[in-house]
Amino acid sequence: MPSSDKRKQSLYFPEDMLKEIQQEATRQDRSLSWIVQKAWKLARKDVMKYPSVNDIADDADDERGKME
């Protein structure tokens, strides 16, 4: 089993979202980090379906080219 990589990273959340995450961490008696990691594992497949910024910019260029 691979060892856990425990690099520190700062993440910034809107205040209301952070309060919700903190409340859920307290309810589950878990750390904020654990909650965010589990949320990512559950959501990552859906997040990977979102277009990248480059994909969106390319689409915008295509639309502008059609109008000219």
Give a written overview of the molecule.
The protein has helices at about 15-30, 30-45, 55-65. With about 70 residues, it is mainly alpha-helical. The protein has one domain (about 15-65). The radius of gyration is 18 Å and the shape is extended. The N and C termini lie far apart (about 55 Å).
Short précis:
The chain is mainly alpha-helical.
Topology record:
Blueprint: H1 15-28, H2 32-47, H3 53-67
Q: What fraction strand?
A: under 5%
- Number of individual domains: 1
Helix share bin? 55-70%
Biggest pleated sheet: none
Mean pLDDT: 86
| Oligomeric state as shown | single chain
Q: Calculate Rg over CA atoms.
A: 18 Å
Give me some keywords for this one.
single chain, 68 residues, mainly alpha, 3 helices, extended
